[in-house]
Amino acid sequence: MAHMLVEANDVCLTYHEPTAETRAIEHLSFQINQGEFVAIVGPSGCGKTSVLSLLAGLMEPSEGEIHIYDDKKPGYMLQRDHLLDWRTIEGNIMLGLEVKHMATPENRAYALFLLDTYGLSEFRHHYPRQLSGGMRQKVALIRTLATSPELLLLDEPFSALDYQTRLRVADEIHSILRREGKTAILVTHDISEAISMSDRVLVFSSRPATLKHEHIIRLSGDNSPLGRRNAPEFKDYFDMIWKELDGYEKTSAQ
To answer: pTM (2 decimals)?
Structure first.
């Protein structure tokens, strides 16, 4: 039986500004089990990133509750890698451990093990400017994994990469997260990316965000994201989600 890791119950979020209030999230409920990879898609500006901020504990919901059944804080991977230019790659992957006062010999050894396992150990004394965009994103992921979070929050982590690099890095990062047994929530504007990487896709409405549709993704053949894009069922999922999102965009534009 699957163990539930994340639960959002009737969550609402209102941004209070000097001249107005903006409702960002409206009565949002969902659950995510341990080991799942879940993608969130929705119209631009609908509040997807706000949901990640709530899950990360950076904000509190205005109403409702969020539970993460794990003692550790989630790991958060942003659109840009935010590597420090003056630190080596080794220095960068140790940063999270240092900030969280977790830089024990065991944890530092684990971080170096991850660097070696995923093919970056030869670059440990390089600086970020010497690495490609895709390699930098892998370093950012290893920095996040080094603190051993059970849950990974991925906010458009491939959007700054060119298309070919994006496909390859998405494949590599998906493989790493599966191998490490992590639970992941991916926010993306890319429907194909959402379908190819995830076990489930949550479709949000236009702002204020609520859960309108949920798709359990079952694709035959190769289980890598690149392979899944060639599955015969892929186009059907894409067409369904495209129509759902297109309907929201047209409604909000009227």
So the answer is: 0.88
| Beta-strand runs (E) in 108-155 | 151-155
Q: What pairs with residue 23 in β-bridges?
A: 14
Task: Determine the Cα–Cα distance for residues 180 and 171; give it in Å rounded to an integer.
Answer: 14
Whole-angstrom distance, CA of residue 128 vs CA of residue 96: 16
89, with CB counted inside 10 A (0-12, 13-18, 19+), is buried
Domains and CATH numbers, the chain: 4-74+150-253 (3.40.50.300), 84-148 (no CATH)
Q: Which of 90, 86, 81 is nearest to 109 (CA)?
A: 90
pLDDT digits (tens, 9 = 90+) for 95-146: 888 888 888 899 999 999 889 888 888 999 999 999 888 888 888 888 888 8
Residue whose C-alpha is closest to residue 54's, from 97, 100, 8, 86: 8
